[in-house]
Amino acid sequence: MKTRYTTAVLIIMLAIGGTLATKALANHGDGDRRPGNCRDSSGEKHRGRMADMARVLDLTAAQQQQIEAILAATREANRPIREKLRQNKQALRAAAKADPVDREEIRSLTTAGGNLKADLLLSRIAIRKQIEAVLTPEQREMKEKIRPLLKHRFGKRHMHHRGPGPYEPADS
Predict the structure, then answer these.
(1) Does residue 89 sit in helix, strand or coil?
(2) How far is CA 56 from CA 60, 84, 87, 138, in A?
(3) Where are the alpha helices (DSSP H) in 30-102?
(4) Residue partners of 120: CB distance under 8 A and separation at least 6
């Protein structure tokens, strides 16, 4: 009697475990855990954010088109910078693997990478300013009110892949 009960419990636990494992694989089955690849495509991620922004801020169709045009133009303008940054990272990896490590080359590559990241940051600041110019004063006020609420969602990107949940510990 005990063995039958134990066997039945074991089978049920295996079935539940298999179901949970299947769901986990369905959510991230492609194995691509790099930041920025949490959804099927980058375009889908941007469309989702745009739809959220349009809904929450009650954007008009004209405002949505203006913002989309701003984002598309800057995406094209930043493409060469992103490509240079990618090449810089590859060169840095190669320099780090070299048998006699050339410290000066690594130092110059990291400096160049930092400058490229600074260029992208400046571009993001300019994009924000352009988008704010499209918004009405009420929409800007609403955007500033909801920004702290979205911090857990957009503040630290994709931390759910690397650590505990999206909530940060309280500041002391």
Answers:
(1) helix
(2) 11, 36, 38, 12
(3) 42-57, 61-97
(4) 78, 81, 82, 85
Summarize pLDDT for 71-112 with one digit per residue, the tens.
Answer: 999 999 999 999 999 999 999 999 999 888 889 999 999 999
Instruction: Please state which architecture CATH assigns to domain 42-151.
Output: Up-down Bundle (1.20)
CA distance 6 to 70: 63
Phi, psi at 58, each rounded to 5°: 55, 55
* Cα–Cα distance measured from residue 33 to residue 37, given in angstroms and rounded to the nearest whole number: 7
Nearest to 53 by CA among 122, 139, 163: 139
Single pTM value for the model: 0.58
What Å distances lie between residue 64 and 48, 55, 140, CA to CA? 13, 11, 15
